[in-house]
Amino acid sequence: GLRPMLERGADSSVVAIASNSTTTQPNYPIEVAEWCLADDETRARAAATTGIGAYPASKLALALWVRRMATTPEWIGAGIRLNAIAPGYIDTPMTEGGWDFVASLGDVYPIPVGRPGEAAEVAGLIRYLLSAEAGFFCGSFIVMDGGTDARLRSDDWPRPIGL
Predict the structure, then answer these.
(1) What is the pLDDT of residue 5?
(2) Which residue among 28, 55, 109, 128 is the active-site one?
(3) Distance of CA 10 to CAs 40, 100, 133, Å?
(4) Active-site residue, 55 included
(5) pTM of the entire structure?
(6) Which tens digit of pLDDT belongs to each residue from 130-154?
(7) Are 44 and 117 in contact (CB under 8 A)?
(8) How far apart (Å, rounded) are the C-alpha atoms in residues 75 and 66?
(9) What value does the mean pLDDT take over residues 50-79?
(10) Are 26 and 72 in contact, with CB atoms under 8 Å apart?
């Protein structure tokens, strides 16, 4: 609903908040993401039987939507930059008291920087992506998780097309 207003603005930009769970959580029902993108709420709800599976699947849907839509005439063609960020474990009221458990996961969910992220760090990235200085970002999916994704998937990306 805000896209028409953004279209009337100058140097408009949107940053969607995905999650590193899209790339680091194993065995969640990825078909839920496609059903969300197809606007098939009934099938998505039926397949997403747990929050632990629904969360990464819905965040994957958001990330894929950003990647698919960012380069279209409706978005960048209308002068609106669209990007997504994927924070990892961030110290917020929602995660309060959970650090010891997350830190104990070791190789299952490593955080090489050795601490939770801070909300101010996420805000700083969002502020940058919304600024004119980030004018060449379009359709990006930026993981900011203290190295979790890099440690778990170091050889997965980048890859040439076709591999």
Answers:
(1) 94
(2) 55
(3) 34, 45, 14
(4) yes
(5) 0.93
(6) 999 999 999 999 999 999 999 999 9
(7) no
(8) 10
(9) 94
(10) no
